[in-house]
Every structure is written in C-alpha cells, then in structure tokens.
C-alpha cells in the first residue's frame, strides 16, 4: 500500500497496526521523522520516503502496489489529472485508489449549525471555495464530482462514494463518542448524507 503525502502517518500507522505494509511518501522531513518514531513498534510494516507526489512514477515500478491513498492533497494542486496520473503510476491494474478531500457543500452547514455563524455560512454558500479549519485558509473548491470526472478521464472506474464526518461538526457537545461513531458509520454510505459530509471519500479501481 502506498500513502501519498501521508505526513506523520495518520492513515499509514493505523493501517500498519492492522497488519498492512505501507510505504509513506511526503516531502516534509519533520513529519516523516515523526512517522518513523511512531512506527518503531511496527517493524517492517512502514517504509518512509521523502519526496513529492509528482516524484512517485520515478520512485516505484509499475504494479508495485495494490492500493494507493491520496488523502487531503488534490485540492492543493492546479492539475488534478496530472497528479492522479502520477500517484497511480505504480498501482497494479485492478488496484484501488482512495481519494479524500474537503467537501465545499458542507461548509455553510458547519458554519451555521456547528458554529452559529450565519453571515459566514451565507458567504460560503456562494463563494465556490472551501474552508479548511486546520490551516485557517480558503482553498479552491474541489468536489467529489470533479474528482470522479478526473478519475474517469484517466480510465479509472469510480466504485464508491462515502462521507466522512457527516454529522460530527454539526452536533453540540457533549456527545457520546461511541454513539456518534455508530451514527457516522450508518450514514457514511447512505445517500444523500455523503453529499453533505465534511469530507468526501471516493474509491476507484484502476483499469
């Protein structure tokens, strides 16, 4: 499994703990060092490579991986198709590509219901941009439909659309975390909730 722009291993390490072998690629040395430290208890399961996503075709052979993760990256680039082509270069035919990104349709709901800020909700509703709280910056919108079209242009077959954080950002604390997890899992693949979730998650199969 290849995790592109995986940072400190937020996705790679839990997957390695489940028994998967994961190669983590990221340009940030400090984040990769953090991943290395936390992977010490998982010998042989986490491999770390400092490089940019665009370098992937030059780092690995064709069909080297069964699964490629591209999470939280596409909305930062101008040419999504070129990036997807690069990160899927070492994916075997029939292998799975997992793409996660912020969903701009959720922003007005989060601002209104989760934060009580109706003015910002109205501004976001017509802005065509996405608000990522972690970086406190407005980024160009990149929707699930956009990415689905990109994948199709590459000859990949979109096979699933999930929602991440369908309600978590809309409920006021205190909330039972176990009950919230059960609800999130129940809504994740049940339309129309993925269309309004804080993040979209697409799975595609390489042709």
TrEMBL record:
Highest taxon above the source species: Bacteria
UniProt key word Transferase: yes
UniProt KW keywords: Methyltransferase, S-adenosyl-L-methionine, Transferase
Keyword RNA-binding attached: no
Pfam families xrefs: Methyltransf_11
GO biological process, one term: methylation
GO terms for MF: S-adenosylmethionine-dependent methyltransferase activity
Domain Methyltransferase type span(s) in chain numbering: 2-98
UniProt name for this protein: Methyltransferase type 11
Species of the source: Actinokineospora spheciospongiae
């Amino acid at each position: 499994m290849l995790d592109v722009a995986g940072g400190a291993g937020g996705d790679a390490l839990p997957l390695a703990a489940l028994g998967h072998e994961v190669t983590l690629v990221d340009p940030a040395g400090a984040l990769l060092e953090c991943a290395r430290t936390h992977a010490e208890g998982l010998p042989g399961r986490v491999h770390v490579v400092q490089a940019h996503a665009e370098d992937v075709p030059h780092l690995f052979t064709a069909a080297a991986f069964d699964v490629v993760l591209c999470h939280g990256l596409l909305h930062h680039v101008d040419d999504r198709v070129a990036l997807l082509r690069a990160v899927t270069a070492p994916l075997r035919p029939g292998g799975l590509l997992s793409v996660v990104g912020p969903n701009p349709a959720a922003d007005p709901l989060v601002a209104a219901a989760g934060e009580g800020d109706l003015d910002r909700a109205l501004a976001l509703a017509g802005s065509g941009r996405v608000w990522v709280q972690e970086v406190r910056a407005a980024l160009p919108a990149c929707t699930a439909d956009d990415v689905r079209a990109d994948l199709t242009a590459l000859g990949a077959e979109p096979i699933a659309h999930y929602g991440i954080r369908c309600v978590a950002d809309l409920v006021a604390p205190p909330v039972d975390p176990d009950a919230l997890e059960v609800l999130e899992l129940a809504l994740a693949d049940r339309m129309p909730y993925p269309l309004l979730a804080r993040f979209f998650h697409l799975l595609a199969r390489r042709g």
